[in-house]
Design goal:
By secondary structure, this protein is mainly beta. It has two domains: 112 residues, Immunoglobulin-like (Sandwich); 115 residues, Immunoglobulin-like (Sandwich), CATH 2.60.40. The protein contains one helix and 21 strands. Strands 11, 12, 13, 14, 15, 18 and 19 form a seven-stranded antiparallel sheet that branches. A five-stranded antiparallel sheet has the order 1-2-7-6-3, with no helix packed on it. A hairpin with a 2-residue loop joins β20 and β21. The longest helix has 16 residues.
Length: 255
């Protein structure tokens, strides 16, 4: 009798773990602002669904690690059958890094959990698809040159250089390998196509001092921007590259 119960327990356990992960195109979004694609190579993407991992687990890298893992808690994500680097997995959410070497066009995204695959979901890649990180107060995530956060109580002023954080600026030079954490700066390839508008006016590119990967990060980009005069108070900020623009609505804390 005991053996029978043990066999039944193993069988039921296997059935519970055997369910395929469940998600759809509507649940695959940009991690920065939860908008749908297109996505860019080396951008951070989130999948919302169910049954995608047995428990939550975030990446834990050893000091000096140069690559993100492609498996966390028995979970893997494949983009056109190429394993993608992972930041976080749980039953209902996965954050992953779009492989940096993919070319613009159509791709498929698939989650595999303990050997069980979910559906292949079609997605589109663009050269760039900029997405700013919003704060709870409706501002774009940005810092002063010294690394302190821009806020209503600590705004930037004309003549300052600020650092704006985002994802989705695409390929860089040098371009990281998939999942690689570059310890140094790498400028975006399509810098000539980068446009930044503040308060509805497009800035002269001369004010862009750097646009590329944030050293020591994966999928995180930054724009170092010199602020000209006459920006007004809390101008709306938008970032565009070759027809792909960040959504409207976010402000930059400026006085």
């Amino acid at each position: 009798m005991l053996r029978a119960w043990l066999a039944l327990a193993v069988l039921l356990s296997g059935t519970a773990r055997g369910a395929a992960p469940n998600y759809s195109a509507a649940g695959i979004v940009n991690t920065a602002n939860y908008t749908l694609g297109p996505f860019a190579p080396n951008s951070i993407v989130t999948i919302f669904g169910s049954g995608m991992a047995r428990s939550a687990q975030g990446v834990q890298l050893a000091p000096g690690a140069l690559y993100l893992p492609t498996e966390l808690n028995y979970v893997r994500v494949f983009v056109s059958d190429q394993p993608a680097a992972l930041f976080y997995v749980s039953d209902g959410q996965i954050n992953f890094l779009m492989p940096s070497v993919l070319l613009p066009g159509n791709v498929t995204i698939r989650v595999a959990t303990e050997g069980n695959s979910g559906p292949e979901i079609a997605a589109t890649l663009a050269d760039a698809a900029p997405a700013l990180f919003p704060t709870a107060a409706g501002y774009a995530l940005a810092t002063h040159a010294d690394g302190t956060l821009l806020t209503v109580d600590s705004p930037a002023h004309a003549g300052d250089t600020v650092v704006i954080y985002l994802t989705g600026l695409g390929r860089t030079s040098p371009n990281p390998a998939p999942g690689q954490i570059l310890p140094y700066a790498a400028q975006m390839v399509r810098l000539i196509d980068l446009r930044i508008s503040l308060g509805g006016s497009t800035l002269d590119p001369i004010y862009i001092k750097y646009a590329g990967l944030t050293p020591g990060s994966a999928g995180l980009y930054q724009i170092n921007l010199f602020l000209p005069d006459n920006l007004g108070t809390d101008p709306e900020i938008r970032v565009a590259v070759a027809g792909q623009s960040s959504p409207a609505g976010l402000k930059l804390a400026v006085r």
